Amino acid sequence: MLMRLSHDLGLYFYDLVVARFDLWAAFGVLAQFVFGARFLVQWIASEKAEKSVIPVGFWVLSISGGLMTLVYGFARSDIVIILGQAFSIFIYIRNLMLISKERKKAAGRIGSEVEAPAQ
Length: 119
Hints:
Protein name: Lipid-A-disaccharide synthase N-terminal domain-containing protein
Structural class: mainly alpha
Number of domains: 1
Number of helices: 4
Shape: elongated
Radius of gyration: 22 Å
Organism: Microvirga mediterraneensis
GO molecular function: lipid-A-disaccharide synthase activity
Largest sheet: none
Keywords: Membrane, Transmembrane, Transmembrane helix
Order of helices and strands: HHHH
Pfam families: LAB_N
């Protein structure tokens, strides 16, 4: 039984990694690496700050990897990937919009403090 399972798993992984591996599969793997890299960026930023931080680079990698994975989903006609990534990308973009809005507010506060005369 274990020998048969071992043989079947070997055939499965051969089919998955060798026989079916094509340019789209390579693109999909690259997309997952880009998408996964965001966690490395987040971890490094958090370690440097010694608190949980989500840097802009996290959202940029989220959008990049998400778009790549969405293209892969369309190429493979995979509704699960398409739906998952399509909705997620909007959330990532919205987070960048909120970060931009907050930075503009902060810049406005700093600008008004500099212009106010000291008493």
